[in-house]
Design brief:
It comes from Sulfurisphaera javensis. By secondary structure, this protein is mainly β. The chain has 1 helix and 28 strands. The N and C termini lie close together (about 10 Å). The relative contact order is 0.12.
């Protein structure tokens, strides 16, 4: 089963496509069964709990929501941290609204948060997030082979939080750990790159609807298969370079494989 967050609602695909929420509303993220992150706020069990544009949901033992500002909330509405004034002092900006945290991960015992557009944040807790000397238009994060990977608007970086190295150039968004390989989504008509060593990257010879700005178009089914969604949903075997178009749908913001 797949959930597809789109610019026109939240859809579920389970042998057929059905809209389950939010017609005429841009949905940016979803955590089953009932936590929805939209351009107008956060909904939990059908009730709006947070006002303001939500960009990301993440489970850090409890589900938290990244809201424009940047602000971080518990999904029931309790504010954890407000970085709005802090972001102004550091010159963070976003051309279509307020800066926001785009992703979270855990690395070297720390919480890491990426900002669009601003400094990478590192802290022992959400309340202790502090900027380090890396500034970019950042999207998604993953940890692989003892490195943190950062997808940005101009390159893919790997870092140990001391040294930051460009490992591929382009507008990157989605990142997947597929066991012995890593997959990165780049803005291109051939949008999938893979690497076994995080140094040498190969573009897969698969032409797909080109991802645009703000689209996390990939999620993992298993170490061999992924789902890809922009204006159409595809299932792709990245080892055998085989793929199948499943269904057309509104422009995707994030695609999620349900566990």
């Amino acid at each position: 089963m797949y959930y597809i967050c789109t610019e026109n609602g939240l859809f579920r695909y389970d042998n057929k496509l059905e809209r389950i929420c939010c017609e005429d509303e841009s949905v940016h993220d979803f955590i089953p069964p009932d936590t929805i992150c939209t351009e107008n706020g956060v909904y939990v069990r059908g009730r709006k709990t947070i006002e303001g544009e939500c960009w990301r949901l993440y489970n850090l033992g409890k589900i938290v929501a990244s809201v424009e500002g940047p602000k971080i909330y518990e999904i029931e509405g309790k504010l954890i941290v407000d970085l709005t004034d802090f972001s102004k002092k550091l010159g963070w900006e976003f051309p279509y609204g307020l800066p926001h945290i785009t992703d979270f991960t855990l690395y070297k015992g720390k919480i890491i948060a990426s900002v669009e557009e601003g400094n990478l944040l590192v802290g022992d807790t959400l309340n202790e997030l502090k900027p380090i000397d890396f500034f970019a238009d950042m999207h998604n994060l993953i940890v692989k082979n003892s490195f943190l990977l950062i997808a940005t608007a101009n390159a893919l970086y790997k870092t140990d939080l001391q040294k930051f190295e460009v490992i591929s150039r382009g507008y990157f968004h989605g990142l997947l750990d597929l066991g012995d390989i890593t997959l990165a989504q780049v803005m291109s008509s051939k949008p999938l790159q893979i690497s076994a060593d995080l140094t040498h990257w190969k573009t897969l010879d698969i032409e797909l609807p080109r991802p645009t700005f703000g689209v996390t178009a990939v999620d993992k089914i298993d170490d061999e298969n992924i789902v890809y969604s922009t204006t159409s949903l595809y299932e792709i075997n990245v080892r055998k370079i085989k793929y199948e178009k499943i269904v057309d749908l509104p422009l995707t913001r994030r695609v999620i494989v349900a566990n």
